[in-house]
Amino acid sequence: MRVAGLALVLAVxxxxxxxxxxxxxxxxxxxxxxxxxxxxxTDAQSCEAARRALLSQGYIITxxxxxxxxxHKSFQQTxxxxxxxxxxxxxxxxxxxxxxxxxxxxxxxxxxALKKTNNSASLGxxxxxxxxxxxxxxxxxxxxxASETVSSAKFYERFFTLVELFxxxxxxxxxHITEKPKTDLGVPEAKAAPAxxxxxxxxxxxPAxxxxPVPPVPAEAAPAASEPVAPAxxAxxxxxRSEEPAASSETITPPTHSSDMPPPTEPIPAMPVxxx
Length: 276
Known about the structure:
The longest helix is centred in the first third of the chain and has 15 residues, at about 1-15. It is built from 4 helices and 6 strands, in the order αβαβββββαα. A hairpin with a 3-residue loop joins strand 5 (about 100-125) and strand 6. Helix 2 packs across helix 3. The protein is elongated. By secondary structure, the chain is of the alpha+beta class. It has helices at about 1-15, 45-55, 155-165, 170-175; strands at about 35-40, 60, 70-75, 80-95, 100-125, 130-150.
């Protein structure tokens, strides 16, 4: 039992002390095509397409070399962690007659974390010397905690697909690159300008048709209610002023005897009374 236990302990110790494979053992330098693409344009044109592709996704361009493009973009994951992607693109001419260029791209991912640092002050005493006494203040700062090259094939495939969108139209036609919808790549489509409307000549005015003469309708056949009849105007009645009968100038001779007078045949009108 003792011998078996000792052998088991030695086997475990040998397994723990075995050398682990280093990280550079995974670098086989194979031409996988993850970080490069070839385009039928010059090196300056390919880098210009890469610059426009990064600008369309919110990257800040930090280089002005026509054959080298560098940019970075920040991401705030949480309140205490921060991430930044630094993109680098290099365009190299192939030296062929067709002005072909190869684009090399790689992205570096840096992670930052919030670190707090406490501040302390020293207090000098004549007998005891200097004494360090902590105080309650602290400084917060972002510290880089990790840095890694992005190796995802899908990440670079999306980038190179977006670069193809910004290549010159004649280059895409020569390379048989199919046009992809801009909305799927996060690029707004330009609104087409409305086509000018050609002025059409106004049609010639047609002559108005001549109305046929309408035969006159006799007055007897016309209905009474077809036209309103205006009421007949009555002549104004002039006010007449009654005139008093003029006094007769004849003199009446009274009879000699009242008995000889004939009886009156008509009533005698009363004499008008005049004001005193």
